[in-house]
Write a structure and sequence with these properties.
Layout lengths: L3 E7 L6 H9 L6 E7 L6 H9 L5 E5 L5 H11 L5 E4 L5 E2 L3 H11 L5 E10 L2 E4 L6 E4 H9 L12 E4 H9 L12 H9 L5 E13 L11 H24 L4 H36 L7 H19 L3
Parallel strand pairs: 1-2, 1-4, 2-3, 6-10
Antiparallel strand pairs: 4-9, 5-10, 6-7, 6-9, 8-10
Helix pairs in contact: 5-9, 6-7, 8-9, 9-10
Amino acid sequence: MSQISIILPTYNVEKYIARALESCINQTFKDIEIIVVDDLGNDKSIDIAKEYASKDNRIKIIHNEENLGTFASRNIGVLNSSSPYIMFLDPDDYLELNACEKCIKILNKNDKIDLIWFDFLYHSNNTIIKNKILQDNIFSINEYCQYVISHDGLCYWTLCSKIIKKEIYAKALTSLAYINTKLTMAEDALMYFFIIQHCKNIQTSSLNIYHYYQNSTSSMLTNNKKRIENYIKQETQIIKIMNNYLKNNKLDTLLFIFLAILMQNIKFGQNERKIQLYKKNYLTYLAYFKLPLKINRKRIILLKKYLKFIFNKKFYQ
């Protein structure tokens, strides 16, 4: 049986998927399973994956019946995996060739570890930034919560920087089985919110083994109004799920604080998107109401009403 299942949720990534698959196939640790989840794009991504699968029986391709988004595609991959550990690879990224070998060495030393969190190599504007944030440490869940809370600016919920015990992921998934909405924004944070509750021991690692690319189609870079509105809607749903869970479940105080901070991080990100969306309307408003100075007072009153609408109704509804 394979030891690690690498899951690639795949949608319109024909430019990159060969590089991602090559980084999986050529891992120095060979006892792996590579699961490509076809989310029904309209390019040649799956044709490329099939060509690789015909030459390597470790590659399994699963076809969704409809376009489901990253969240559901990852979960389908996990449910069809056969390894005790799972990791996720977005097909526009790739792995260091010794990524699995390095992680297995850590796991072989301590089989009590539920999750390994490693560092990224960020690719942006033809430069590579090597993160030097994490140190090699093993934490209990309380120690881990304290560690994250005491360090500002950590993007600790990203699933692509993790290796996770499948049984832990499966337990977390039971809390989210009712979700049938297509999620492509903050889906990592939602899954992580439930994963962390089932972890007892977490390893942070100084390894830089995942190459992360921020390309022009990234959700963080889009200026498409409909896409931004959709992301805000998804984040609202995720915040509601988290908030309801925190209200209706008794948790250890430190874990509760940790999860509440995670929820607030999603809110902050959502507010940034709201600013991005509404500032265009605000600029249009200013241009339209460039009235003569003699009716400046009227303009100020209207501007105040507009700002009240944006900040009270839109941001904090």
